[in-house]
Structure formats: structure tokens, C-alpha cells
From TrEMBL:
UniProt KW Oxidoreductase keyword: yes
Protein name: FAD-dependent monooxygenase
Natural source organism: Streptomyces chrestomyceticus
Domain of life per record: Bacteria
Swiss-Prot/TrEMBL keywords: FAD, Flavoprotein, Monooxygenase, Oxidoreductase
Pfam families (alphabetical): FAD_binding_3 (PF01494), NAD_binding_8 (PF13450)
Length: 404
């Protein structure tokens, strides 16, 4: 129990929900996370996440010191300050640079492997994460609290319920059924290629250590992002946080192929029915006429880590009603990954909500007041994140067809 006996139920053990649980536990607030996956190994989520200055600060704020150190030690090894854009024959187009107030700080965390991040966020939370609990609905209780019901027939009572159940949030579906994120019309193949395979297949040297973007003449666009670890992640965890098993992973590239629905050459349903090998074949065919150094990318992609998604966005971002049900992350502000800020915004929510709910637990603030202030700030920075992501999505795919 927290100091005031406040009990927080978090629906969804993704990036945002787990970060919040770390923050609240660190502050001594009673928190339980309900996750529909059967366990931490049920899904591979091993793609690369760009981490912004705000995202890094929020992760640091929520994690205890040993996990902060582990975050730094398992982050991307090279600093990133821009991208190089090419046409499909690798003729350079332009090379915008990004401002990063962190400069070349040696302990900067500017990209993480999502599987590694998830394991770090789960460390120490074993007693409070309940797996195999699919949220179905919630109800307000006469005492001001809330009851969450799960598909297995169980339920839990809390003073606050945090909807951290992602872009297809069931909590949002119950409370705000019309607030679905809009489909932007862009279909994306996300994939992963082992670095050594890509280099062996002839990935040109200038693309090996940079964020590269290739603009195809047929409307396909390829983003290629290196993920290079400082040391072996398993050994690093063994040294800094004995007992924590991190996934075995070597250096890789995350490849992102964007195609507008109208240019897919197949109906949407057919695209989404493609499995990993099918998606790799689709992407290899789309890039078959490109520079020889790029053709190997999807031929060597790992099918089990290849998946297709529809880019979606909540626009505008609107606050939920101020009550015991509080939104966090993609549930309230889905945005396309083009801006690389969705997870950063979710952990920013987690840090802000940790502060707000800790103050409530300590009796320093009323719940309604704390939740209103949290949502006001969240809507402001999340709107910036959505707008920035949409600008980049529109820049890369001119036909992006929603969001105003
Ligand atoms: C390929 C890809 C690349 C990306 N790259 C970046 C990047 O570089 N930088 C960045 O900032 N963002 C990136 N994003 C976006 C980022 O992944 C999301 O914004 C982020 O994961 C949102 O966190 P969340 O906690 O809100 O939701 P999620 O991480 O999606 O977590 C939701 C959790 O809720 C669980 N859940 C769902 N329904 C239920 C239910 N009914 N009951 C119980 N549990 C449930 C799910 O199993 C899941 O664990 C990327 C996204 C993709 C797909």
C-alpha cells in the first residue's frame, strides 16, 4: 500500500505502462500492471527505438540507478545527428541534421533495442506484473474507485486505472468509442537485418553507420537505421544487474519500407495477410531495381522479425474525462513512427504521471486536480509529437491522407 493506501491499476505492460510502474514503485506507490501477453517472452519486439532528449530524461527519472546505468551501457554506440537521403540509385539528395542538446555526451541514450528496453523496464517488477490478464471492461464504484474486469473472469479494484494498453486500447473503446486513430493510408514493412549480413551483401560504406533514407521512383521509401551495441548486452547485464537475462542480440539494421496503400499493387487485405517471408519477398521485389548495394537488404532480412503495419494517428489529441481512469501513451496519442517519438511521449507521460500520482498518494494534491494538470500538459506535448510525425510522414509520402 502507498502512504494514503492509494492503489493504481495499470492496463498494459508496454513501454509506457512499465515505465510508470517503475516510477510509482520507486516512489512507494502501490501499483499493479495487467498485461494480456502470457509472459515476457511471448512476443519478439526487437526493433530499434530512437530515444529523444525528453524520452531519455523521463526514463532516467523513473528508473532506479542500477537500471539507469544498464540503459546507458546497452544503448546505441554511436551518436546520431542527422540523416542522408538518396535516390534509389544512391545519388545523394540532401542531408538534414537534427539538433540534439545532448551533443556528444558519452552517456547519452539516443537509441535502444526495444526488447532490451522492455527487459530493463521489467527488472524488479516481477511482484507487480500480472501476465495473461486481458482487460475487457471497467466500472466506476460508488466509493470513487474503479474495478477492472479481465477475460479470465477475474477483476481488480483500484483508486486509479491507467489506460496504457496501446493504439488499440480496449479501455478507450469502452470510454470513448469514437476516438479511433485515423488511418494515414501508408503501409509499412518493418524488418531487421543482421549487420554482418547486410555488409556482406554489399551495403555501401557510407550507409553502414548512418541513418539513411532512400526515395524510390515508384513511391516506395526505405529508412535504414543502424543499431550497434557498445558491448555484448548479456555480459553487460550480468556485470551491472546480476540475475537479469537480456535477449541475445548483435548489431543490426532496422529497415522501414513505406508504401502508400494506392501503390501497394494488391488489396489491403492481401498485404496484411502476408507473413514474414511474404513481406520480405514483397519488399525485395519493390527494391529489385534499386542500386545493387540496396538489393540485399530485404533478401537478408529476418522473416521472423518482419511485420507490416498501417500508420495511424490521433489528431487532434484530446484529454479524457477527469476521473479515476487516466490515459497514457498510444492509447490517447497514437502517432506514426516516422517522427520516432511515440515511445518517447509514452515514457514522458509515465514520468509526469508518476509525479502527479505520487503527490496524490502523499496527500499533497487531490486526484482530479493532479489528473487535470497531467492531461493538460500531456495534450500539449503529445500534439507537438503527432504534428511533427505527420509532417515527416507527409514529407516522405506525399499522399498521406488523413490528419487534416
Ligand atoms: C516498428 C516501430 C518502430 C517504432 N519506432 C519508434 C521510435 O524509434 N521511437 C519512438 O519513440 N517510438 C517508436 N515507435 C512507437 C512506439 O513503439 C509506441 O509509441 C510505444 O510502444 C507506445 O507505448 P505504449 O506503452 O503506449 O503502448 P505499447 O508499447 O503498445 O504497449 C501496450 C501494451 O498493452 C498490452 N495490451 C493491449 N491490450 C490489452 C488488454 N486488453 N489487456 C491487457 N493488456 C493489453 C499490449 O500487449 C502491450 O504490451 C515505433 C513503433 C513501431 C511499430
Amino acid at each position: 500500500m502507498g502512504r494514503n493506501g492509494m492503489r493504481v491499476l495499470v492496463i498494459g505492460g508496454g513501454v509506457g505502462g512499465l515505465c510508470l510502474a517503475q516510477g510509482l514503485r520507486g516512489a512507494g506507490v502501490d501499483v499493479t500492471v495487467f498485461e494480456r501477453d502470457g509472459g515476457p517472452d511471448e512476443r519478439r519486439q526487437g526493433y530499434r527505438l530512437r530515444i529523444s532528449p525528453e524520452g531519455e530524461a523521463s526514463l532516467r527519472a523513473c528508473l532506479p540507478p542500477p537500471l539507469r546505468e544498464l540503459l546507458v551501457a546497452t544503448a546505441h554506440r554511436r551518436g546520431e545527428n542527422g540523416l542522408d537521403a538518396y535516390d534509389e540509385h544512391l545519388a545523394p539528395q540532401w542531408a538534414p541534421s537534427f539538433d540534439d542538446p545532448r551533443g556528444e555526451r558519452p552517456d547519452k541514450v539516443d537509441a535502444l533495442d526495444r526488447d532490451v528496453l522492455r527487459r530493463i523496464l521489467l527488472a524488479g517488477l516481477e511482484p507487480v506484473v500480472r501476465y495473461g490478464r486481458t482487460f475487457t471492461r471497467c466500472e466506476r464504484l460508488p466509493d470513487g474507485g474503479v474495478r477492472a474486469c479481465f477475460a479470465d473472469g477475474s477483476s481488480a479494484r483500484g483508486d486509479v486505472l491507467v489506460a496504457a494498453d496501446g493504439a488499440n486500447s480496449r479501455v478507450r473503446a469502452q470510454l470513448l468509442p469514437d476516438r479511433l486513430p485515423a488511418d494515414l493510408g501508408v503501409r509499412t514493412v518493418f524488418s531487421r537485418i543482421t549487420r554482418a549480413d547486410a555488409v556482406r551483401a554489399g551495403l555501401p560504406e557510407p550507409l553502414q553507420d548512418r541513418f539513411s533514407y532512400v526515395i524510390g521512383s515508384d513511391g516506395s521509401h526505405l529508412g535504414l537505421m543502424p543499431m550497434s551495441f557498445r558491448d555484448g548486452v548479456r555480459e553487460t547485464a550480468g556485470r551491472l544487474y546480476p540475475g537479469l537475462r537480456l535477449p541475445e542480440t548483435g548489431d543490426y539494421y532496422m529497415a522501414v519500407l513505406n508504401v502508400h496503400r494506392a501503390d501497394l499493387g494488391m488489396p489491403d487485405a492481401e498485404f496484411f495477410a502476408l507473413d514474414g517471408p511474404g513481406l520480405c519477398r514483397f519488399a525485395a521485389a519493390r527494391t529489385a531495381g534499386w542500386h545493387p548495394g540496396l538489393r540485399g537488404v530485404f533478401r537478408h532480412a529476418r522473416p521472423e522479425l518482419t511485420f507490416g503495419v498501417a500508420l495511424r494517428a490521433h489528431t487532434p489529441v484530446v484529454p479524457w474525462e477527469t476521473g479515476p481512469v487516466v490515459p497514457l501513451g498510444d492509447a490517447v496519442h497514437t502517432m506514426p513512427p516516422s517522427g520516432g517519438v511515440g515511445a518517447n511521449t509514452a515514457v514522458r507521460d509515465a514520468a509526469a504521471l508518476t509525479e502527479a500520482l505520487t503527490a496524490v498518494d502523499r496527500g499533497e494534491r487531490g486526484l482530479a486536480d493532479a489528473v487535470t494538470a497531467y492531461q493538460k500538459a500531456m495534450v500539449e506535448y503529445a500534439t507537438e509529437g503527432v504534428e511533427m510525425s505527420l509532417r515527416i510522414a507527409r514529407w516522405s509520402i506525399k499522399k498521406v491522407n488523413a490528419g487534416g
